[in-house]
Amino acid sequence: MLEVTVCVGSACHLKGSAEVIRILKDLIAAYDLGDQVTLAGSFCQGHCTDGVVVRVGEELITGVSRDQVYDLFQKKILGRCRL
Ligand code: FES
After folding, report:
1. How many angstroms is it from 40 CA to the middle of ligand 1?
2. What predicted TM-score, i.e. pTM, was given to this entire model?
3. Angle 77-79-35 (CA atoms, 0-180°, nearest 5)?
4. What is the chain's pLDDT, residue by residue, as a tens digit (83 residues)?
5. In the list 6, 7, 55, 66, which could disulfide-bond 12, CB 3.0-4.6 Å?
6. Rounded distance, CA 14 to CA 51, Å?
C-alpha cells in the first residue's frame, strides 16, 4: 500500500491543502486506486514556509499548489501502482 499524506497544519491549510486533498481523492477514485493508495492528512511536517507539503511513501514533496497536483499524481503515484 502506498501511503500519501498531505499536511493540514495551519500554514499548509492556508496555502490550500484541503483542495490538494480533494483533488488527490478524486484522482485516486477516478483511477480506482483505493486498494493501493491510502490518503490521509498529517500534522505539520516542519516545512511551513514551503507548503503545501505532501509525502508519498518516504518522499517529501514541498510547494505543491492545486495546479501541480495532477502532475504530482502522474509522476509520483500513478507510476507506482498497478493499472
Ligand atoms: S503546516 Fe505544513 S509543514 Fe508546517
Report:
1. 14
2. 0.95
3. 60
4. 999 999 999 999 999 999 999 999 999 999 999 999 999 999 999 999 999 999 999 999 999 999 999 999 999 999 999 87
5. 7
6. 9
Q: Distance between the two ends of the chain, CA-based, in angstroms?
A: 14
- How far does residue 70's CA lie from ligand 1's centre (Å)? 21
And the C-alpha cell for 45?
Answer: 511536517
CATH annotation of 2-80: 3.40.30.10
Q: Which amino acid is at 6?
A: V
* Domain definitions of the chain by residue range: 2-80
